[in-house]
Specification:
The chain is of the alpha+beta class and about 110 residues long. It has a single domain (about 5-105), classed as 2-Layer Sandwich (YaeB-like fold). Helices cover about 35% and strands about 30% of the residues. It contains three helices and seven strands. The protein has a five-stranded mixed β-sheet with strand order 1-7-6-5-2. A two-stranded antiparallel sheet has the order 3-4.
Length: about 110
């Protein structure tokens, strides 16, 4: 069952600010994960996040695009059959997770 895809307004800007080839790679990855956004333990594509480096992202999942050096943080909203993209950013350091935590708190997710 394919779910509905939504973006936080900030995540939509993240996507728009990607270079053209990065945008294509991220869009394909999100579309693939959207088919089965469940955590890997439940047979899906999502990699669970937790409480690391001072950012508590328990209950959120990530798509790691190693070749492109990009990480997408999302929340699976099971009751509504939707996937909410929180942040799309460079995965070199923990900044993407810090941004995700700020956006989660700001938007009361």
């Amino acid at each position: 069952m394919k779910r509905t895809l939504k973006y936080l307004p900030e995540a939509a800007k993240d996507f728009k600010n990607l270079a053209g080839n990065q945008r294509i790679i991220v869009a394909k990855a999100i579309d693939k994960v959207l088919e089965n956004p469940l955590p890997m333990q439940e047979g899906g594509y999502g990699k669970p996040l937790g409480n690391k480096h001072g950012s508590d992202l328990s209950g959120f999942l990530k798509i790691k695009l190693r070749g492109a050096g990009i990480c997408v943080v999302y929340k699976l909203i099971r009751a509504e059959s939707e996937m909410l993209v929180i942040v799309i950013g460079v995965r070199d350091d923990d900044e993407v997770y810090e941004i995700a935590e700020r956006r989660i708190q700001k938007n009361d997710i």
